[in-house]
Amino acid sequence: MNKLIYFILPVTLAFMACKSKKQEPAAARENTTTENLVQLTDAQLQSAAVELTQLAPKNIAYTLHVSGKIDVPPQNMVSISFPLGGFLKDTRLLSGMQVTKGEAIATMEDPQYIQLQQDYLTARTKLDLLAKDYIRQKDLNSSKAASDKVFEQAEADYKSQQIQVSALAQKLKLIGVNAEKLDPSTISRTVNIYSPINGFVTAVNVNIGKYVNPTDVLFEIVDPSDIHLGLTVFEKDIPSLSKGQKVIAYTNTDPSKKYECAIILIGQDVGNNRSVEVHCHFEQYDKSLLPGTFMNADIETKNKQVQALPEAAVVANGGQQYVFVAHDKHTFEMVPVKTGGRENGFLEIQADDAATLAGKNIVAKGAYSLLMKVKNGGDEE
């Protein structure tokens, strides 16, 4: 009798173990989660309150987030040199100082300035003499009292001297000397450098007593009245932009302070990184904005019709965005998507992904619960 009991007990245990193993797959099918696939039981579906939707066309205005820096047009940035060179005798300029157009900003000194003024006055005196001789020879020639050759020589000498005087006057103008007001009593060994524009000094490259060559840049001055913001925009976003479009810019140091701008020019050249330069004009100039300052900007684009989903349908995980596509009532696949603009609770699905998801049922409510099941390997109840 005891032997019979010992025999039945192992057989019974083995049978129960086999039955348990056969039932495990059925239980697993009720609550299965793979890397991108989720299967829910009826109870889990009810708990997650899953609702489905499909892509639908929506008019969405989205915001481009771009960056760039403050720039100045070439005509508003001046590098000041001195055409004849010389020694810097005096200047009061410091970087950041404001200057006005026509203001004397430096004084140069050199013996060649004296020589140039002397040459001009000598040439002008000689011109007066040759002018009188030309008139006299012209009268004599008209009465046949002088030969044509003598008259022609007098005419040539007079016109040649006119050229000489005019050339010397232009050289004097280069160094800021008014030739018409020059006389022997006003000859000077020094000349002034005058600011050609209104603006502020951005660079002082010389010191008093230094000799500078004609090619040396003494000062750099910027007129900030026409500063603009140069933004780098990717090629794919250019069709969304237009001249006159509003832009909100801000710096990294003070992002709460906003600067209103408007697009004035969209570049026609695509760079190596598939980007285009977009130029914007500030609605109101702020003196604290200096050329070269790095800025961020938001550009609100015009409404366009796109394929969109409710914002709740898109979840984020690991820097990537996903939606859950329903294969049947209980099975859902997590699919990566790229999004665009958002408005009124809807989020744009970019064209390539929209084509893939067209006509498919997508989880509109409960997507976050499904994401938690994926992240926890199906342990969420």
From TrEMBL:
InterPro entries in alphabetical order: MFP_Cation_Efflux, RND_pump_MFP
Keyword Transport recorded: yes
One term under GO cellular component: membrane
GO biological process: copper ion export; plasma membrane copper ion transport
Keyword line: Transport
Top-rank lineage group of the source organism: Bacteria
Entry coiled-coil feature ranges: none
Alphabetized GO MF terms: transmembrane transporter activity
Family: Belongs to the membrane fusion protein (MFP) (TC 8.A.1) family.
Protein name: Efflux transporter periplasmic adaptor subunit
Organism: Chitinophaga parva
